[in-house]
Design a protein that fits this description.
Belongs to the 'phage' integrase family. The protein is α+β, with helices and mostly antiparallel strands. It is built from 16 helices and ten strands. The longest helix is centred in the last third of the chain and has 22 residues. The C terminus is likely disordered.
Length: about 450
């Protein structure tokens, strides 16, 4: 890209670039003005010449826009218009976006970028009228970049129809935006009905924020029928838990990642969500109360009771300079490779369709098999706050008894100690414990 003062003689002398150069397709050629930075001429392989400006938006995005076609606009007219727009840029204004908004021509990609910038700055409120959490924004950004922009990014919001949105949902479900894992880190981009439905929820929410704050006139995703994905019913049976435990012990002897193995066992003993478990910090453990004090979760700050077997596992983790119970192999973060470790272990165990969520569901199902109520299990899983009843001490004591019982039973199954005779006597013990819990109000 050459740089010189743009004049009529220079523009007239510009020749169309060849469609390809050294086997590489050439889209256009640029000449930039040496006096007015950001002002230039674009020459297409067809010979079409246009005046352009290039600048960085207040959000940090590089933007290039055509401001007029040579022949319909003189060089001096183009220079004057470019100067006006670039002066606006220096004052923190994105002139192209402002013009597009005035004409109703904002693209889906531009609205998504606006949403991310505003949300990261804390100017968009989410649940409970609080700034959207970084973890939620990270997921929103992933869906935007992986699915929304490739399918709808260049479409103008004002021209978008409900059918276009539902068509994009169908494309995601069919795997049109799927991509394999790139490199040694990160995951693959997958499709499917669940991914499609959640992406549509994200897009609908973005448009709603944009309408509420005056960025667009109407939400084109309003009324979209989101795909209903089948709920995941997979849980490990008692015999599968025993098989998994045996494989975990064998994998440890074979040199499998110890942090990954410990995290898998903890997920079964405590029923935590994957990132709740991996992100556990040592200062959050309250041994006296047998609980984890989360400063923040999906439903806000929370106290989560766990069994003594789960606490012992945490305390057995090697102490390092890291604040996490399950630290990363390098860097200052926490371990993130539990899914790959779980996949390897389950392959050796001959167990199919197992995810960290399956382990959480297995914990809940085992608690149900032991006779505990849905309200008690929901409290152990951290599904929602238990309201005023959480203030009563006997409810907390009942939860500790429940957490201990479920964790002990899970540990016995994993370690091969749950014999048939013990299971029968255990049912009698559980019946007595259930009566005790009912008497205390659980």
């Amino acid at each position: 890209m050459a740089k010189e003062k743009i004049t009529k003689r220079i523009v007239d002398a510009l020749k169309a670039p060849k469609p390809s150069r050294d086997g590489v397709k050439v889209r256009e050629h640029f000449v930039w003005d040496r006096e007015l930075r950001g002002f230039g001429v674009q020459v297409m392989p067809s010979g079409l010449k246009s005046f352009v400006i290039q600048y960085r938006t207040p959000e940090g995005r590089n933007r290039r826009a055509v401001i007029g076609r040579y022949g319909l606009m003189t060089v001096e007219e183009a220079r004057k218009l470019a100067h006006e727009k670039l002066v606006a840029v220096s004052k923190g204004v994105d002139p192209v976006a402002e013009e597009a908004k005035a004409a109703g021509l904002l693209t889906v990609a531009e609205v998504c970028d606006w949403y991310l910038a505003e949300a990261e700055a804390g100017r968009i409120l989410g649940r409970r009228r609080r700034p959207i959490k970084p973890s939620t924004l990270a997921m929103d950004r992933s869906r935007i970049e992986a699915h929304i922009k490739p399918l709808l990014g260049r479409r103008q919001v004002a021209s978008l129809k409900l059918g276009d949105v539902e068509g994009a949902q169908a494309d995601i479900a069919a795997g049109k935006t799927s991509k394999p894992r790139a490199g040694s880190r990160g995951g693959a981009t997958t499709g499917g009905e669940g991914v499609a439905a959640r992406t549509m929820s994200t897009l609908h929410s973005i448009f709603e924020h944009a309408v509420r704050l005056g960025k667009i006139e109407a939400n084109p995703a309003k009324g979209v029928r989101r795909l209903a994905s089948a709920p995941r019913e997979r849980r490990l049976s008692r015999s599968e838990i025993e098989r998994l435990g045996k494989t975990l012990r064998a994998a440890a002897e074979e040199g499998e990642h110890p942090t990954g193995l410990a995290a898998i066992r903890f997920l079964l003993l405590a029923g935590f969500r994957r990132m709740e478990a991996l992100g556990l910090q040592r200062t959050w453990l309250d041994e006296e109360e047998c609980a984890i004090r989360f400063p923040d979760t999906k439903s806000g700050a929370q106290i989560r009771v766990i069994g003594q077997a789960a606490i012992d596992l945490l305390l057995d983790q090697p102490k390092t300079k890291s604040p996490f119970f399950f630290p990363a192999d390098w860097g200052e973060g926490h371990f993130i490779g539990v899914v790959r470790v779980l996949d390897r272990v389950c392959q050796k165990a001959g167990l199919a369709d197992i995810t960290p969520h399956t382990l959480r569901h297995t914990f809940a199902s085992l608690a149900g098999d032991l006779g505990f109520s849905e309200l008690t299990i929901a409290a152990l899983l951290g599904h929602s706050a238990r309201g005023v009843t959480q203030r009563y001490v006997h409810i907390d004591e009942a939860l500790r008894m429940t957490a201990d019982r479920v964790a002990d039973e899970m540990a016995d199954l994993l370690d091969g100690r749950a014999t048939p005779s013990r299971s029968r006597s255990g049912r009698r013990d559980r019946s007595q414990q259930k009566q005790t819990l009912e008497a205390t109000g659980a």
